[in-house]
Amino acid sequence: MHSRPTLLLNIFDVAAQLYREHFRSSEILRKPYLAVAVQVIAAETDVAARRLFTTPQQRFLRLIRNQPVELLPPVDSMDPLWQYGERAAVEDKLGAAIVGSNATVKAGLEKLVGKTGADEVIVVTDTYEHADRLASYRRVAEIAKLIEAGPIMAVGA
Fold it and tell me: What are the residue ranges spanned by the domains of the chain?
């Protein structure tokens, strides 16, 4: 994993801590409530998930190139598509993503919730094929049932 996501999570940890420390209750919200959005792609294997993940990678690559950002089919490798600086920018932007098999995604979600204390995880999945997106959401829903954490993770399609 690229080193910047660690920095991003550390900054987010500080922001989450400050939010909780300085929270002031209201009639609407009596205690702090932290929702965290994260890109998640779950597939049968880590390799299959990483291939599907090339779709959001291509999307962000096109965004930084000021090109149309429609979803593109996954590719076997991003290496021929990006320059070094572009790769770093894409990895920096998408580095906190959780991508892999059920076991990998479960470990990633547990780490995210453990580090942030999130009350809710908002899962975002960009895949080219709608069926892959639904399959990923179904996997994440099953994984969420297995995670023993205080917060409840809601998953929707």
Answer: 4-48+96-146
